[in-house]
Amino acid sequence: MDSWDYKLYSNQLYKVPDVVFKIEINTSLCADKLPISDEIENNHLKWLNDSKFYGDVPVTNTLNSLVPYIYSFLPEKYIIPMYRVVDWVTIFDDLVLENKNYTPEYLESIFNRNAIHDHFGKSYWKILDEFDNIDVPRELMNDIMRKYVKSIIKSFSVNLRDSTFNEYFKIRRKTSGSKVFLSTFLLDLKCNNIASTIMVNPLVERLCILISNCNSLLNDLYSFVKEFQSEEYDNYVKVLCYQLTKDLTYPYTTDIIQTSMNKIKDIIESSYEEAAEIGELIKNHSEWNQEEHTILEIILKRIYESAYGHILTYKNTFRYISNH
Ligand SMILES: [Mg+2]
């Protein structure tokens, strides 16, 4: 069959390699301390419990620390709804999308403010109202989230087993949340128009692709244990394992997963190196005017900081650590 057969790889010995961040930045982010106040973290946990997504089962830890780490530069008032909406979509994905527990009409209704909502829809629009209260139009956020959920659903029908690196990441970038990040990482600056002209610059585009790939690959490395038994080729470690063994006879040597993971570590680290070089090219590009230059400095700083935050997320996160 065309699906991933984990039993073929159950003899494997491996350890997730330590990925080194190859870009020099000034940052106060560190793995053992969340870059948000205890108050925000506790409020978020309370929100998760009050929302009762898992019925009456108490949630004792926040799901992951992605938002605090990758949006560490945003003022707290933006972090609060961002943290909620990202967890909302994570839970919605786990409980509804992955279980194919929906109809197209149901999805349409979730993203339509005037529809009748179940508790997913109600909690979703409550979060969007919170955005609206801090001058981030709720329909702007709705547009971003709706497109994101649609791309997740579209990816279900694609089998990535035989995909090349570029094919895999073309799909993966759409479903990894990179788009959501790139549409929101300047939320507080109200400079979306300037930003969008800058974002189509080929150098900036290449930088975003490189960093998005790194973020997806980090997720693949650290969620591999959790995803090992699922049949989908939803993880680049699986794709590489398949491609490394398709012409071999079973049983395979015990280093296939490790070889795939090491290859991924190399890709991530060399992508960081290229991203650092591109940052220099962007800064020294002579065509920018003063205003563009100022915003580009911010963009670079934030993209790098969030890339580093991505690594720390997996070193910190209960969700991933608990699955080892
Ligand atoms: Mg994953």
UniProtKB/TrEMBL annotation:
Domain of life per record: Eukaryota
Pfam families with a match to the protein in the record: Terpene_syn_C_2 (PF19086)
Record-given protein name: Terpene synthase
InterPro entries named among the record's database cross-references: Isoprenoid_synthase_dom_sf (IPR008949)
SUPFAM superfamilies named in the record: Terpenoid synthases
